[in-house]
Amino acid sequence: ALHEGHIVSTQELAVLLQPVFTQNSKNLVLLVQDTLSVDDFTYYSEPYGNKKPFQNLSINLLQEILQSSPSSLVLPAVDCRAIRYLLGFLQESADWKLTNITNLDVSQLEVNTSKPNLFVVRLQPFISNLNDVSTLEAIAENDKIIGRLIMGLQEQEIHFSVIYTAVRPSRISRRTDVAWKLRRQLMATEEEDSSSYPPLNVTNGNYTCILFYASNFSLQANDSLFIDLTNITFVNQNVDISSSECSDTNTTLSLKYTNPVSEINSLEIRFLMTNMFYEVSARNWSTLESVEIVQDDEKLAKFNVSVISAPAEYSFHCQLVGTSNLYPAKLIPSNDEAKNWDVFISRFQIQGFNIENDQFSYASDCTSFFTPGIWMGLVTSVVLLWILAYGIHMIMQLTTNSRFDDPKGPALSVPQTE
């Protein structure tokens, strides 16, 4: 009974999920995408060639929701801040046996149906600058993965419920706080930033020397153990940053966690940054040299970093940072232990030098200034300008006749030599 355009809050989502905990079958599959919005189900509903998005997801169920909704134009959606707490909320709501599915081979999956099971599946990420066709292909590929997973669980006669969600929205829609506001507007306002927590700051005396922010900060160990550090880092701030170090040339952000998951007693993540002067650019540059993960004070995983640098007066920002080859800024394993870890960071922003007023400075983004779209526009403009210049040149070369025939006088005779 939610009106169109309603944004489901954290408290409302907890009430809506109660039937999942009270039904006979308490097996739950949580499908997590990096970006997704309600509009994607209609925008990418049509097949493109042999790519059929959302084929294995119950499109009939979606059509029923459209019919039962007060408006088929704007469906209710869930606030992304509620999604941020979803995994932690599910773990606290029941005595789940948490299983992170990575290889999607459910034939070897041993399920104990005597107690609730929570299966967490991290789907392949989308890249924000993909065109519609590439995004549709990525959705179709993830849909095949979902189909294989659901088919495998059904073959084992396991009864389960499915939640398909994402870390953040893929589209920004206009405000729809109440039903009567759903009318055409000349200047529709966009939603405010969904982040509800400030960045993590490290102080050195009376001033802030490090700022760190991420909308999603999670790790995966040995392709099975998933660790979400977002809430305990930025919201609850249940993290020890006392080992962080600051200076004019070297800065280390140290994040220490105690029992982040039951299988790990202690976990430390270090971001090592340098501030150096480069004669070519005649200025100082701040560079994230490496990232280190220390498990239980003995296992060290070290990653080299690509393209994470900015002028020393700026902060650095990147939409996706991690070990995936699809991310613009990649963490490259430099030892054998690092190959056992996967890192996922969304909306990454960090600054280790020249912080003023406890706020991030102007951000240098990992996306280059000359994107493919800009190059296409420049090349097209050059071609059009060349055609215009050639046309003007041809018009300027036009000349009039030097002699004219007078119909009242004798005929004009032009010698052949001329």
Automatic annotation (TrEMBL):
Q: Which residues form the V-type proton ATPase subunit S1 luminal domain?
A: 208-353
A family per Pfam: Ac45-VOA1_TM
Tell whether tRNA processing is among the UniProt keywords.
Answer: no
Q: Where are the transmembrane segments?
A: 374-393
**Membrane topology field:** Single-pass membrane protein
What GO terms describe the biological role, i.e. biological process, of this protein?
regulation of cellular pH
Q: Report the residue ranges that make up the V-type proton ATPase subunit S1/VOA1 transmembrane domain in this protein.
A: 368-406
Q: Please tell me whether the keyword Chaperone is annotated for this protein.
A: no
What PANTHER family does the database record attribute to this sequence? ATPASE H+ TRANSPORTING ACCESSORY PROTEIN 1, VACUOLAR ATP SYNTHASE SUBUNIT S1
Q: What is this protein called?
A: VAS1 ATPase
Organism encoding this protein: Casuarius casuarius
Lineage, opening ranks: Eukaryota, Metazoa, Chordata, Craniata, Vertebrata
